[in-house]
Specification:
Elements: H1 2-19, E1 24-30, E2 35-41, E3 44-50, E4 55-57, H2 72-93, E5 106-111, E6 121-130, E7 136-141, E8 144-146, E9 150-151, E10 155-156, E11 162-170, E12 177-183, E13 191-196, H3 208-237
Antiparallel strand pairs: 1-2, 2-3, 3-4, 5-6, 6-11, 7-8, 7-12, 9-11, 10-11, 12-13
The protein binds 2-acetamido-2-deoxy-beta-D-glucopyranose.
The site of 2-acetamido-2-deoxy-beta-D-glucopyranose has 4 residues, from loops.
C-alpha cells in the first residue's frame, strides 16, 4: 500500500516537472545553396546568424535580459564549413544518394490579433512539413506585390521536416485581399493562400451606429408621414 502511494506521488512529481520542461535546440545545417545556424528555446528563436549581413541577430522580446553569445557569428561560419565538408564526404561515401523532397504538408494564413478595421495587425503565413529547407514566401495585396515582410529561419520538426513562419504588417481595410505564395523545391506550382478582410471584423463603433439609427428613424418617420398623406388623399378622392 505504502509503495503504491509512493509510486503515485512520484508519477505526480514527474508529470509536474514535465509540464515545466523547456527544449533548447541548436540547429546548424547546410545544403548547396543554403545554410542556417539558430539557437531556439521552447520553439522561439533566441539567436540566429544572418549570413548576408554577416552578423548574429538576437530577436528577443524586451523582457529578456539579453541572452547573447559572443563569437557566435564566427562560430556559425566555421560550422558551415564543417557542414559543407561533411556533406561532400557523405555524398561520396553514399554514392550520391538522391536527396529526399517533401513538399509543404500545410500552409495556413491568419492574423496574429483579432481583426479591427484600421488597426495595425500582422498577417502570418505558416508553412510546415517540408524538406529540405527553406521555402520562399512572397506576399501580394490586391494582386500587387508587397515588400517589407519577414520570415523565420527554418525550424526543425520532430519528424525531420521544417517549419517556417512569414509575417507581414498590415492595416485591415474592408475588402482588401492578401495572398502569400510559397515556393519549394518539391512544388511544381507555388502554393498560394488568400486572406480577405471581411465584414465579420469588428470595427470601432464610433459614430456609425448612431448615424445609421438616426437615418433609419428619419426614413421611418418620412414613410409614416407619406403613408398617412396618401391615405388621407385617397379617402378624399373616393
Ligand atoms: C527562392 O528564391 C531564390 C532567390 O530568388 C531562388 O534562387 C530560389 O531558387 C528560390 N527557391 C525556390 C524553391 O523557389
Amino acid at each position: 500500500m505504502k509503495m503504491k502511494e509512493l509510486l503515485l506521488f512520484l508519477s505526480c512529481v514527474l508529470s509536474v516537472s514535465a509540464d515545466g520542461l523547456h527544449s533548447d535546440i541548436k540547429i546548424a545545417g547546410c545544403s548547396d545553396s543554403y545554410g542556417e545556424d539558430v539557437y531556439t528555446l521552447g520553439g522561439e528563436e533566441v539567436a540566429y546568424t544572418d549570413f548576408n549581413k554577416k552578423e548574429e541577430i538576437y530577436p528577443q522580446p524586451p523582457f529578456v535580459d539579453g541572452m547573447n553569445y559572443p563569437g557566435a557569428y564566427e562560430n556559425a561560419v566555421a560550422q558551415q564549413q564543417v557542414c559543407r565538408t561533411t556533406l561532400q564526404n557523405c555524398r561520396k561515401g553514399m554514392k550520391d544518394f538522391p536527396l529526399e523532397h517533401d513538399a509543404p504538408s500545410g500552409v495556413m494564413i491568419y492574423t496574429r490579433d483579432e481583426v479591427e478595421f484600421g488597426e495595425e495587425n500582422t498577417l502570418i503565413c505558416y508553412v510546415t512539413g517540408f524538406y529540405p529547407a527553406p521555402v520562399n514566401v512572397s506576399w501580394t495585396k490586391n494582386k500587387e506585390k508587397v515588400t517589407g515582410s519577414s520570415i523565420n529561419v527554418p525550424y526543425i520538426n520532430k519528424d525531420g521536416t521544417f517549419t517556417q513562419i512569414a509575417r507581414l504588417q498590415f492595416t485591415p481595410q474592408l475588402g482588401d485581399v492578401y495572398s502569400c505564395k510559397v515556393e519549394h523545391l518539391a512544388l511544381t506550382e507555388p502554393a498560394t493562400k488568400f486572406y480577405e478582410v471581411e465584414t465579420s471584423a469588428r470595427s470601432d463603433p464610433g459614430v456609425g451606429p448612431s448615424v445609421f439609427c438616426g437615418v433609419g428613424l428619419t426614413l421611418g418617420l418620412v414613410g409614416v408621414a407619406a403613408g398617412t398623406f396618401f391615405l388621407i388623399k385617397g379617402n378624399e378622392c373616393s
